[in-house]
Amino acid sequence: MLTIVVDAMGGDNAPACVVDGVVEALRESSNRFEILLIGQDEKVAPLLRQHDTAGLNLRFMHAPEVVTMEDVPATAVKAKQESSLVLGLKLCKSKEADAFVSAGNTGAMMAASLFVLGRLPGVLRPTIYAYFPRLGEGLTNIVDVGANVDCKPENLVQFAEMLTIYQRYAAKIDNPVVGLLNIGEEEGKGPDYLKQAWNLLQEAHGQGKINFIGNIEGHDILAGKATIVVCDGLVGNTILKFGESIPHFLGALFKPALEKLVMAGKLDQNSAALAGQAFKGIFEPFDVEKFGGVPFLGVDGISIVGHGRSSSRAIKNMIYMAEHMIEQRVNERIAEMLS
Amino acid sequence: MLTIVVDAMGGDNAPACVVDGVVEALRESSNRFEILLIGQDEKVAPLLRQHDTAGLNLRFMHAPEVVTMEDVPATAVKAKQESSLVLGLKLCKSKEADAFVSAGNTGAMMAASLFVLGRLPGVLRPTIYAYFPRLGEGLTNIVDVGANVDCKPENLVQFAEMLTIYQRYAAKIDNPVVGLLNIGEEEGKGPDYLKQAWNLLQEAHGQGKINFIGNIEGHDILAGKATIVVCDGLVGNTILKFGESIPHFLGALFKPALEKLVMAGKLDQNSAALAGQAFKGIFEPFDVEKFGGVPFLGVDGISIVGHGRSSSRAIKNMIYMAEHMIEQRVNERIAEMLS
Hints:
The structure is a homodimer.
Chain A: E1 3-7, H1 16-28, E2 34-39, H2 41-49, E3 58-62, H3 73-79, H4 84-93, E4 99-102, H5 106-117, E5 129-132, E6 140-143, H6 153-170, E7 178-181, H7 192-206, E8 212-216, H8 220-223, E9 228-230, H9 233-244, H10 246-263, H11 269-281, E10 293-295, E11 303-306, H12 312-327, H13 330-338
Parallel strand pairs in A: 1-2, 1-4, 2-3, 4-11, 6-9, 7-8, 7-9
Antiparallel strand pairs in A: 5-6, 10-11
């Protein structure tokens, strides 16, 4: 049976929503795996007592230290060796567990995963991607979204290769489509590192490793032109954060516009409320909770990080994601392709 | 009296909407300036005949060649010396005219402006910015948006300095605020070239040249944290094109959501139409037409380029923008700050 370690201390709503998510996952899956919850005893134990955990495949392990959102990633990993983050990953390294899940400090998770688990054979730099909404069916991921700034062309190609494996086997996308985010569609556009990346991606395409459609532009992301949008971590991180700010921005404009129509007697309260709900609904594709989190691709183990705002539902989905990655042998397949 | 050269052949709707825009500008401004319309006689003359141009400060000049949207910028400028684009800019260079306005091929405009007009003293690289919507009053510009990929730190600082001058004198922003677009707010974040840019921007701030608030992130753009968002052309171009794709993307989700409510008998047709109009209205801040276009900052002359989709209103506003830049001595002030 698989053992998944869950960081009780990670995330803005931890440990309460982590405990809830863990219990839900075990109940819903009928104890299909074992969960090892790790965190500060004094904070987690009282929460566990609020649940009926009898018969659940749930163990608890005390970790005295906590890596916070404010901790500087590289320093935190070295200074807080007794944290749930570091101890949890060490259990994966020693094969006492199969995967680690946390909604904690992303930078620290990345640093600790790399430091404790190391890289898969052939991987130059592990990476992290993000989900984006799109028109039509399917899935859009952007890679990298902040783990790697100053990418070399060969890094970008590996990101495309690793995410192709992930999408094909873990996300059930039959034919992942890779686009290189650039300032123009034509070959030969953009800075030198993207021109070189274009050549290498074309080469990988020729070898049947990926399905590369060439350069794509900013407006092609939401249009769903590619399932894998490849870019440097600075570009990806900026687009991601910009995208996350859109619902609030537009909501702040739409709400008063509806209120004005109500005040003018043109729209009744009920219709305005319905329109407001429909408006909120269009941002559902922006909901990252259904995916839970994202794995670090390229580390020698399974390490999944969630948004700081993760709910119990997100935690639960991250646990399923871990299970699925193991079953689908995603890491073995990545190592096969890259080495 | 000022003479503004307008490229009759530039833009998707040229020459018809250019002719309309020119006539409107002269009528509305009561002939405050002279306009020299330049383009292919056989295409422009019939359109001019449709207007009553008697008494307008309008001259026409024939240019046999046309730079199209498909032309490769660098090649086009050398190969099409008899184009409206190159001839128009040459009139500015020889001081026979004071400014050049076109809604044509942006890359070719940039190349031709640099080639024909040259740079202002002290300017390393001219740049081009874009408008972004924001919450609250004021104005947000992003610089660079595609003219310069692979920026050096000193280029980014000059972009901030030039746009500070432009906003202060031509856009009437009392205190332009500069933010450096990065993956995190803290000092020391991001790739090396941004760390170095941070230092140089801080230095320029200390010298009173700009008002620098440090690093900003993707979600700070729409929030209006800075009036000047500084980044490499690859990042700016991507964000710009991504942003431009949002209204269509969300409209494609909202329209069927409203229709569904109507079909279900929950919302009447009229209310749905009103909500749909209110929805369209929230994208008005995305309307670049009111600004018309953007000037190339840093070239030794005034060269303003508009969106390919420019309407007659956009052309008219670009003409006013040219007039305003001359009156406010924007280029002289940039040269003073940078040299």
